[in-house]
């Protein structure tokens, strides 16, 4: 599907049962835009998680870490709204064995070399699990 925000290509993926309450909408899947990194509900996601390295080579290759990470990337645009969901998802990423702090700095570095939205890059670079909103 095309991104409703920018018309870019999206990467649809199934959202595991345990994470469904953390994402907007009732759909069983979500789609991450490869261009603007926005997250959209996907009605008919593939059965298996896709290769998120198509979005960014910085994504973890294990889907246990890559799926929650993709959800985090999509929810970051609404950090104030989804702060607790994001922190839950980051815990899942960590439990899957990926150091998300290192991942976020790699992802920010990788996307600064591409055509992605600078605002998203700033958000990726600025978010840490200890971040407090004032
Ligand atoms: Zn987009």
Walk me through what this model shows.
This protein has a three-stranded antiparallel beta sheet, with helices on one face. It has one domain (10-126). α3 runs antiparallel to α4. The model has no long low-confidence stretch (mean pLDDT 81). With 134 residues, the chain is of the alpha+beta class. β2 and β3 form a beta hairpin. Helix content is 36%, strand content 10%. The structure holds zinc ion (ZN). Zinc ion binds next to loops. Zinc ion (ZN) binds at residues 3, 5-6, 8, 33, 35-36, 38.
- How many discrete structural domains? 1
Number of strands: 3
Report the helical percentage: 25-40%
Query: How would a crystallographer describe the biggest sheet?
Result: 3 strands, antiparallel
What small molecules does this complex bind?
Answer: zinc ion
Structural class: alpha+beta
- Beta-strand share of residues: 5-15%
Q: What is the mean predicted local confidence, pLDDT?
A: 81
Distinct helical segment count: 4
Write the layout of secondary structure elements.
Elements: E1 10-14, E2 29-33, E3 39-42, H1 63-75, H2 83-95, H3 100-112, H4 118-126
Antiparallel strand pairs: 1-2, 2-3
The structure holds zinc ion.
Key words describing this protein structure:
134 residues; alpha+beta; 3-stranded antiparallel beta sheet; 4 helices; 36% helix; 10% strand; binds zinc ion
Summarize the structure.
This protein has 134 residues and is of the alpha+beta class. The chain has helices at residues 63-75, 83-95, 100-112, 118-126, and strands at 10-14, 29-33, 39-42.
């Amino acid at each position: 599907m095309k991104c409703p925000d920018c018309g870019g290509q999206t990467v649809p993926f199934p959202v595991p049962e345990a994470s469904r309450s953390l994402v907007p909408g009732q759909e069983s899947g979500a789609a991450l835009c490869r261009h603007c990194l926005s997250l959209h509900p996907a009605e008919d996601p593939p059965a298996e998680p896709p290769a998120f390295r198509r979005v960014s080579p910085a994504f973890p290759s294990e889907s246990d870490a890559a799926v929650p990470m993709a959800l985090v990337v999509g929810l970051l645009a609404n950090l104030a709204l989804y702060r607790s969901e994001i922190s839950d998802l980051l815990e899942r990423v960590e439990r899957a064995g990926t150091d998300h702090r290192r991942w976020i700095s790699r992802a920010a570095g990788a996307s600064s070399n591409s055509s992605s939205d600078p605002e998203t890059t700033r958000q990726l670079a600025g978010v840490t699990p200890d971040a407090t909103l004032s």
